[in-house]
UniProtKB/TrEMBL annotation:
Its main location: periplasm. This is ABC transporter substrate-binding protein. It comes from the Bacteria. The chain crosses the membrane at residues 5-22. The keyword Translocase does not apply. The keyword RNA-binding does not apply. The lineage of its organism: Bacteria, Bacillati, Bacillota, Bacilli, Bacillales. It is found in: Periplasm. It comes from Metabacillus sediminis. Keywords: Membrane, Periplasm, Signal, Transmembrane, Transmembrane helix, Transport.
Length: 357
């Protein structure tokens, strides 16, 4: 009996030690649920002043981490290990994360500012009823270019980038869907195409653009283009707007063969430790003045109707970044192609990158 009692005491002591050290580990990494909020967002995708304002208004400490592709973000979240309270995936990633059970349904009663979002961006097919995600930014993929470095030439199509005169003058954003989409669209195929012959044709076509590609880069693409280190770049619209703010010689075009229309929404991953604060943060980002300040800072297009109304006309009236419904209807939203096809797109993109070496 005494032995049993001793064993019981030993187990109890070990459990307490384990519990305390795990908690210490969590809080030393800053990942305890307590009064902290861990946000996982794209690089350069929030005005840091707004994070400071949220911390001041709520007393919640924000831990801010970044990713540079939906694929990297999904891998990290599905591995668990790190607790993220709010993340900002794009639509096809949201659909996949929902499927994989990685998201929690949102409590709309805690998001009264949802009324500020333009209904055009609500209830889209990747998340009916916005059960799991709330609009953050939206935009297109296109080409930012410097006519002064191209003898005044105007770029209008993806195929212009294959022109031998573009030798070593192009930068590409480091995204599998974006680059594969460019290859597919340039051939007249859908950027959601899953036909193997079309995909191989797109990759073979991409290989032929290699001499024109100076580099495939992340967020530094903005600095390189603004500093005229390259004449053209395949970028997300908001990056283009920021670059053009730095260098007025540049222009942005959504290629005539078609391109991508995307939506980045805020979600709460299943592993969130502080769901209450996560809702508080999402609601804060939906305040009209917050949404407007954030849009002005990052250069991306806000889905917040009330926020848009207080932005200067030179921003809200710029059709390159706020295209009307007629224009956006001609663009394609990425479908969730499923695990296998997504992996195949990544593989083909990687092969293209290797081909450059
Ligand atoms: C910001 C990246 C925005 C990603 N640097 C568009 N989905």
């Amino acid at each position: 009996m005494k032995q049993l009692f001793n064993a019981f005491i030993a187990i109890a002591v070990i459990s307490v030690i384990l519990y305390v050290s795990i908690n210490q580990l969590n809080s030393s990494q800053g990942y305890s649920g307590g009064n902290t909020l861990t946000i996982y967002n794209w690089g350069d995708y929030v005005d840091p002043e707004l994070i400071a304002r949220f911390e001041k208004e709520t007393g919640i400490k924000v831990i801010y981490q970044t990713f540079d592709s939906n694929e990297a973000m999904m891998t990290k979240i599905s591995q668990g290990g790190t607790t993220f309270d709010v993340a900002m995936p794009s639509e096809y990633a949201i659909s996949k994360m929902k499927e994989d059970g990685l998201l929690i349904p949102l409590d709309h009663s805690k998001l009264p500012n949802l009324k500020n979002i333009d209904t055009r961006f609500m209830d889209l097919s990747f998340d009916p009823g916005n059960q799991y995600s709330i609009p953050y930014f939206w935009g297109t993929v296109g080409i930012v270019y410097n006519p002064a470095m191209l003898n005044g030439k105007k770029i209008t199509s993806w195929n212009d980038l294959w022109d031998p005169e573009m030798k070593n003058k192009i930068l590409l954003a480091d995204g599998a869907r974006e680059v594969m989409g460019m290859g597919l669209n340039s051939l007249g195929y859908s950027l959601n195409d899953t036909n193997e012959a079309h995909l191989q044709e797109a990759k073979a076509k991409l290989n032929t653009i290699t001499p024109n590609v100076k580099a495939i880069v992340g967020d530094e693409i903005k600095m390189l283009l603004a500093n005229e280190e390259a004449a053209a770049g395949v970028v997300w619209s908001g990056d283009a707007s920021e670059i053009m703010g730095e260098n007025e010689k540049l222009d942005y075009v959504v290629p005539e063969e078609g391109s991508n229309l995307w939506f980045d929404n805020m979600v709460i991953p299943k592993t969130a430790a502080n769901r209450e604060a996560a809702h508080q943060f999402i609601n804060f980002m939906l305040e009209p003045d917050v949404a407007a300040q954030n849009a002005e800072y990052v250069g991306y297009s806000t889905p917040n109707k009330e926020g848009l109304a207080i932005l200067p006309e030179e921003i809200s009236g710029d059709e390159r970044f706020y295209p009307d419904t007629e224009t956006t209807e001609k663009l394609e939203v990425y479908d969730n192609l499923g695990k296998k096809m997504l992996a195949h797109y990544n593989e083909l993109f990687l092969e293209f990158k290797m081909h450059r070496k």
